[in-house]
Amino acid sequence: MHQKPILLIIFFWAFIHIASAGPEQSVVQITNYTQQPDWVEPWRFSPVSGGLGSGFVIEGQRIMTNAHVVSWSKQLIVYRFQDPQPYRATVEYIGHDCDLAVLRVDDPTFFEGIPALEIGELPGVRSVVTTYGYPSGGRQISYTSGVVSRIEVQRYMQPSNRNLLTVQTDAAINPGNSGGPVIQDGKVVGVSFQGKPGLENAGFFIPPVIISHFLEDIADERYDGFPDAGISIVKLTNPAFREALGLPQSNTGARIDSLLHPFPKTHELIRENDVLLEVSGYEVGSDGTILYQGNRVHCSILFDEVQHGESIELKVWRKNEALDIELPLYVNREDRISGNQYEPPPYIIVGGLVFTELSSNYLGSLGRNWRNKISPEILYELIYRNRLGEDEAREKPIVLSKILKHPSNVDFAVGSRSILTELNGSEITNMADFKAALENTEDEFYRFRFLSGAEEALNRADALAADRQLIQQYNIPSAQRL
């Protein structure tokens, strides 16, 4: 007689339980204990500090998060939803160019009862999404809903020199939310990753096309990265210039302004002043944009859909005719120094002179007004020199970072922040060149030549003796790290 009410109660409880088991069950909190190098004194490291972020479970018993959440990690601790027990995790793959990473958890029981979230499709503008994560200052998960307000190409702050597709929303994305999923209809349509200084009520997330590219890339157990075509595209709206190139007067076609290095296939197949008409079948507007799922965005997003070593179909206008070209794309690693670095910097100490690689991190460590502290030549070396080709480029310019004072170098007239170009007549383009020149010289002196044209010298025997003293005096573990 009383079974029916009992069954109804059980059914109601089960319904409430299932309804409450939403995506939050798959969202984790991440604590990263980090230690970063000192770029001016590269043998030193900062004190260990902790930072918070979010992540979510994906197929294969893995956790996806942002690369910036787990960068410089000494130890990673992850927490399940509403579970106080800490679990140790490690970085399995990391893509600094797209600000994504995949983690493994040492204890496989961590994933028991946690469903993997599925990657969805690009959300439409004006549609509603919900962000999940653990903003700084709390152990309880946070949910915020908002509207997708814009889809466009933006600079990713993690690499600082890469522009990829992003989605803007007015849902709150605060520190600690980074790495958490953005959900629509129960599927992941983005990964929260950054805000924009001065822009209120706006956050950005990484869209599914970038997430899927990253996951496809690591399927072979190696991360290559997002490839590049090696071309610079500029708008072509001037009627006179279009007529000079033999183009019809329309809104189609953007000009290829320059070819970058090192992209030998691009130099073989593409010419400067070619006009890009189509990419992967998408018509390219005169401003370089395409119509992509209802959004007007830069055509570069189509290049970002291709994996390293694969080809993309282009249609270009050259000498009054349209040509179909299949262009192979490769990851560009030659512009690495112009972006943020995520490996301890190499260094060599010679007679108290501390040399390291020029990088954006090194310049950033000089303070907020670092541009006022360097010469235009250094900025040129960092950003533009590598575009000039193999004959002109210095692979990884070497900078005199600091001078540890010693009687042997007291009269050394060249100051820090100078680019080394030669040692004893040998050209220096990277640390390997520098080390070889030091080891192979039989001269009584180390003779330095710098980008400014300045020349200086140290007595070789005195320099070697000084290094032995300075290493002990400053507690430096070694005179070099390569």
UniProtKB/TrEMBL annotation:
UniProt keyword annotations, A-Z: Hydrolase, Protease, Serine protease
Gene Ontology annotations of biological process type: proteolysis
Keyword Metal-binding: no
Residues in Protease Do-like PDZ domain copies: 343-479
InterPro entries: DEGP_PDZ, DEGP_PDZ_sf, PDZ_sf, Peptidase_S1_PA, Peptidase_S1C
GO molecular function: serine-type endopeptidase activity
Protein name: Peptidase S1
